[in-house]
């Protein structure tokens, strides 16, 4: 009979404390007082202490403000930086990162085209159509033949000549692809014409 009475008493105290702590409008002082009222409640005191720390950290996080935004490189600046000689251009370091979506790769290509002698106003639509058909502008596109990346290099490892990060960096793939087009077809529209006639370029 004794264990049943002890269990019942603990249950009643637990329900009372929970009701008091969870009651609307209860403050942290009321919760701490309720916990301290239970004899030998070291574990509950530790939990309350952690709760108070979380409240303080949440309040502190809500007061943070951004003083300045980080200086980001444009896709054109990243593309024009020569990774084989330096990772800086005019004293500014650029850290290229893969765009999360194909639109980012398209912007990189658009900004890079003039550096290969392809005015975007004249040639971008051909390049867009070519690489949309080949890879949907996805840097990790791969087909059964082993062609890889935005320009569908076959094998993909040929793009290593443009950078060691050829498997993951759209800018490296685009740099290689534009060089390939210039060397093989003279311009993106000639490459697109060949693609339409043959199903590959």
Quick recap of the structure?
This protein has 201 residues and is an all-alpha fold. The protein has helices at residues 2-22, 28-36, 42-62, 75-80, 102-112, 120-135, 170-185, 188-198, and strands at residues 88-89, 92-93.
Say how many strands there are. Answer: 2
How many structural domains? 2
User: What proportion strand?
Assistant: under 5%
Average pLDDT works out at 77
Rg, alpha carbons: 31 Å
- The strand order across the widest sheet is 1-2
The termini sit apart by: 88 Å
* Classification by helices and strands: mainly alpha
Number of helices: 8
Q: Could you please describe the fold and organization of this structure?
A:
It is a single chain. With 201 residues, the chain is mainly α. 55% of the residues lie in helices and 2% in strands. Strands 1-2 form a two-stranded antiparallel ribbon. Helix 5 crosses helix 7.
Structural key phrases:
8 helices, two-stranded antiparallel ribbon, 2 domains, 201 residues, 55% helix, mainly alpha, rod-shaped
Secondary-structure map:
Blueprint: H1 2-22, H2 28-36, H3 42-62, H4 75-80, E1 88-89, E2 92-93, H5 102-112, H6 120-135, H7 170-185, H8 188-198
Antiparallel strand pairs: 1-2
């Amino acid at each position: 009979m004794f264990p049943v009475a002890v269990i019942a008493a603990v249950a009643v105290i637990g329900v009372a404390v929970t009701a008091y702590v969870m009651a609307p409008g209860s403050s942290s002082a009321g919760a701490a007082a309720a916990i301290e009222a239970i004899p030998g409640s070291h574990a509950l005191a530790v939990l309350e202490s952690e709760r108070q720390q979380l409240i303080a950290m949440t309040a502190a996080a809500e007061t943070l403000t951004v003083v300045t935004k980080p200086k980001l490189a444009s896709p054109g600046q990243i593309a024009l930086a020569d990774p084989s000689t330096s990772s800086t251009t005019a004293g500014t370091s650029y850290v290229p990162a893969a765009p999360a979506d194909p639109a980012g790769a398209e912007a990189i290509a658009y900004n890079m085209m003039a550096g290969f002698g392809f005015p975007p106003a004249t040639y971008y639509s051909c390049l867009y159509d070519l690489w949309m058909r080949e890879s949907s502008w996805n840097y990790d596109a791969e087909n059964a033949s082993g062609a890889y990346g935005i320009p569908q290099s076959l094998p993909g490892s040929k793009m290593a000549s443009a950078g060691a990060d050829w498997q993951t960096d759209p800018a490296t793939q685009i740099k290689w692809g534009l060089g390939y087009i210039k060397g093989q077809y003279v311009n993106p529209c000639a490459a697109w014409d060949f693609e339409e006639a043959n199903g590959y370029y």
